Amino acid sequence: MIKSKHDRGRPPFDEKLAASYVGKYILVGLTYLDHKGKELRRQQLHGVITSATPEGIKIALRGIYDGQSWNMPPDLGSIRPAKPGTYTLYMTGEVIENPDVLSTWTINEPDPNEKPKL
Q1: C-alpha to C-alpha distances, 21 to 18, 24, 70, 76, 113, nearest whole angstrom
Q2: pTM for the whole structure
Q3: Measured distance CA(67)–CA(65) in Å, rounded
Q4: Which of 10, 57, 91, 109 could form a disulfide with 72 if both were Cys (CB 3.0 to 4.6 A apart)?
Q5: Cα(101)–Cα(81) distance, integer angstroms
């Protein structure tokens, strides 16, 4: 487990758990909200986890994003086992068979009238 003064508010990083996710097929759901909580859009990504470090969880993407990578925040608590089955992606219609793990995220845009906190 790694923890530094820069980890305030972050859950502890479990290196053994992180290593167990490398090589797993992941399906990620992203929901984007405006500053008032109104849904702007949704996106789904899928691929193979290639590394998991305190800096982030790197995913080699497949499907329409094949050949690209995406770095997910290093929150291991956001990853959960996937139930076996067929997952049809909302936006693309892609069909994913039996992913190993799932992760969902909600991204809130900041209020454009609020000053950034440093």
Answers
A1: 5, 5, 15, 9, 40
A2: 0.83
A3: 6
A4: 57
A5: 4
